[in-house]
Prior knowledge:
The chain is an alpha/beta fold. The protein has helices spanning 20-33, 41-47, 52-60, 66-83, 93-102, 115-124, 146-154, 171-179, 194-198, 208-218; strands at residues 7-10, 17-18, 88-89, 107-114, 134-137, 164-168, 183-187, 204-205.
Amino acid sequence: MRARATHLVWDWNGTLFHDIDAVIDATNASFAEVGLGPITLERYRELYCVPVPRFYERLMGRLPTDAEWSVMDEAFHRHYWALAEHARLAVGAEQLLTDWQAAGLTQSLCSLAPHDHLIPIVRTHGIEQRFIRVDGRTGSSRAGKAEQMVRHLAALEGVAPEQVVVIGDAVDDAVAAAHAGAQAVLYTGGSHSRAGLEAAGVPVVDSLADAVRVARSLTE
């Protein structure tokens, strides 16, 4: 790998994995269990944020109690993982990963999905070998990705933060990248509206192909 080669850190949910329909369906199923009305995709993208309890605060007008959060979190994940079995990789994702690796460049995966769920689903889609490292969440689901990103980059041998571009679908991905000394490109196919993503002050694109192109230009 050349000294200044770009290393990509991919997000999973809403980025490589096109699961937004499963997310909306699981969200509404879990809302029904706690007495909240359904939400549209547009409204979800307008309100969604990380840490996730803040998303519920925007919906409810207050932060959920610990007991409410426990019920909501369990219900969402119960519905989501059943629905996620039918979701697919984003358009062009597999080829982009293959081409990046074939060019002698490196990439990894850093996700807030639980690690013990993330590894099997990445394997199911046949792309695990494209990454030099795959990290899912091992701690609380109430936190963002910033500290996890620091640990992820620290574990990448020979990759300096200034070589790294994070590709994700959430403002939190940009926050995590900046916290770890990396750059970010945000993709509109997932959890946020374009306007919401643009507020992060990093490049925003409408396709993963454009995300890769812009990412490479950022560290040249």
